[in-house]
Known about the structure:
GO terms for molecular function: 3-oxoacyl-[acyl-carrier-protein] synthase activity. This is 3-oxoacyl-ACP synthase. InterPro entries: ACP_syn_III_C, ACP_syn_III_N, Thiolase-like. Pfam families: ACP_syn_III, ACP_syn_III_C. Keywords: Acyltransferase, Transferase. The chain is an alpha/beta fold. It has two domains: about 5-180, Peroxisomal Thiolase, Chain A, domain 1; about 185-335, Thiolase/Chalcone synthase (Peroxisomal Thiolase, Chain A, domain 1). The chain contains ten helices and 14 strands. It has helices at about 20-25, 55-60, 65-70, 70-75, 95-100, 120-135, 225-250, 265-275, 285-290, 295-305, and strands spanning about 5-15, 20, 45, 80-85, 110, 140-145, 170-180, 185-190, 200, 220, 255-260, 280-285, 315-320, 325-335. Strands 1-7-6-4-5 form a five-stranded mixed beta sheet, sandwiched between helices. The chain has a five-stranded mixed beta sheet with strand order 8-14-13-11-12, sandwiched between helices. Helix 2 packs across helix 5 (about 95-100) and helix 7 packs parallel to helix 8 (about 265-275). It is globular, with a radius of gyration of 19 Å.
Amino acid sequence: xxxxxxxxxxVSTYLPGEPISAEYYAQFAESDELRDNxxxxxxxxxxxxxxxxxxxxxxxxxxxxxxxxxxxxVIANVDILISHTQMPDVPFYGAGGGIAHxxxxxxxxxxDLHNGGCAAFVLxxxxxxxxxxxxxxxxxxxxxxxxxxGQIFDQPGVRRKAQAAVPGxxxxxxxxxxxxxxxxxxxxxxxxxxxxxxxxxxxxxxxxWWEPGPGExxxxxxxxxxxxxxxxxxxxxxxxxYTVCDRIGLRTKDIDLLVTNQPNRAFLRNWCxxxxxxxxxxxxxxxxxxxxxxxxxxxxxxxxxxxxxVSPGDTVLMAAFAHxxxxxxAAAVRWGGRPT
Length: 340
């Protein structure tokens, strides 16, 4: 390996509160023209961020595992901090500065990403990889927090909608180093700007999201938009996955572990079929956690490590698409094993 090889050496995660069952939403459900759509078939359980729990709180709790395995000094001496928060606690700025302070860091680089959406962890890995390879430091932390389920989707008016029962909350961090311990083999990131306006906040009666007034904001899904999102997601995730596999000289059917975001069961099934993989090699936590947005990939990878579904030397492919299909990314890692 080159001296500029960058490795994802560990991940650590956090799920807030006790699991919330599908019955919780069933008691609020009202007639919804999208209720039978396969996009909104509810998971059995999900977690919700606490009423006073911030994104920084979630990231701090997610980092506990890294501290236990690598020591506080490794975290304190991180050179590059990259964060993504699904729903920023303050609209004008991200959580990066607060995370650095809470974790006792003095990083040279603090970057908040927002456009990565459900693929933000892979985008964060690629950003960290480029910076570390260029000499910007030796260690990076990628931190993601999904905190919209217990805030946006549990509003009294919104939780009556079919879309409310699918999201779950969680947070995760990934530790990257300039080393060949668990090398990132390749990354592909693609932006589809033509779709950037297809995800919107809807309020009834209509108003801008920041304007005062009646009505609660939710995602403005329609049957037409859902059809387009399904088509894009079914296409984009396999496309970026095949591109990465082609460049590293690996057939998709030879991937040892596939880790993706998890919007719904249909995508999970279709992606396996498109990549010619048995479901046993595609780890997910949809029924326990719901749609975890950007936290989905690291939470699922952490679960796979804990359950022994990935071994040192295995090739792990991570892939996801974001929003209504305006971004997609995939990354391959040769897993080096977790320190004990």
